[in-house]
Amino acid sequence: EPEVTQTPSHQVTQMGQEVILRCVPISNHLYFYWYRQILGQKVEFLVSFYNNEISEKSEIFDDQFSVERPDGSNFTLKIRSTKLEDSAMYFCASTPSGNTIYFGEGSWLTVV
Amino acid sequence: RKEVEQDPGPFNVPEGATVAFNCTYSNSASQSFFWYRQDCRKEPKLLMSVYSSGNEDGRFTAQLNRASQYISLLIRDSKLSDSATYLCVVNKITGTASKLTFGTGTRLQVTL
After folding, report:
1. Are B36 and B86 in contact (CB under 8 A)?
2. Which residues of A touch B106 (CB under 8 A)?
3. Given B97, B104, B105, which is nearest A56 (Cβ)?
4. Would strands A107-111 and A10-13 be described as parallel, antiparallel, or unpaired?
5. From first to last of its 112 residues, what are the pLDDT tens digits of chain A?
């Protein structure tokens, strides 16, 4: 069964460093997303991406965050200057139609 | 009022029991509805979509009441493997943007 794949599965970084989280969505999907989940809290929407553009972004997705689809397969989330409060699980997701959304296994980011 | 509200639980039930979870949502423009299951430190996995007519998938039955903005999930004959957090999720599609909003989840623990 096709799946969304994410790398790295776990990254530890120092505060102020840049981090890039990578995702390979399911191949025929057109809509891509990043969500995050701080430990013990709910899953929160960050950004949606369609046709090589951001469709919608949340208040969390400030200027420190950016997304790119550098080639036909990868979808990346960049955090320019990490803060302690960026420590969370980051989930990439994709869907063919905007309805049923499939999640990757997540990238656990720890900022120290 | 929270966008998606769930009783966090935990619900501790013996194997074989029937358990019901409820959820309310505040945005009447929400268009599609889901229950996801999340195991500890794992990604959310789609359990089932929820329709006004009600739908069943084996031991799981989901129901949507649009007038009351209320969603339910019933699990019959609980198994140990059902132990997880159940996430109520609503989706709003605006143009090309689709945004899932998650509840905080209801924790279920099934015991022998």
Report:
1. yes
2. none
3. B97
4. parallel
5. 779 999 999 999 999 999 999 999 998 888 899 999 999 999 999 999 988 889 899 999 999 999 998 887 899 999 999 999 999 999 999 988 767 889 999 999 999 9
